[in-house]
Design goal:
Number of strands: 5
Distance between the termini: 11 Å
Number of helices: 1
Shape: globular
Structural class: mainly beta
Mean pLDDT: 91
Helix content: under 10%
Order of helices and strands: EEEEEH
Length: 62
């Protein structure tokens, strides 16, 4: 899997269907064959980055 944001392959698994990109420091979650991307904020909350990517870019083959 490659990060749709930075194209890095340096992705680690942090939970069930949850991954973290060490290249650009975003969290990726897979739900129903689609990636959901989030930026981790200073206070630990997550901000969605889904609106920055086309739906086709976020689709994955299971």
């Amino acid at each position: 899997m490659r990060c749709p944001n930075c194209k890095s392959k340096d992705i680690g698994k942090i939970g069930t269907s949850q991954y973290y990109c060490w290249g650009c420091f975003i969290e990726l979650t897979i739900t129903d064959g689609q990636l959901h991307l989030h930026q981790v904020e200073v206070d630990g909350s997550l901000s969605s980055l889904d609106d920055l990517f086309a739906e086709e870019e976020r689709n994955i083959d299971l």
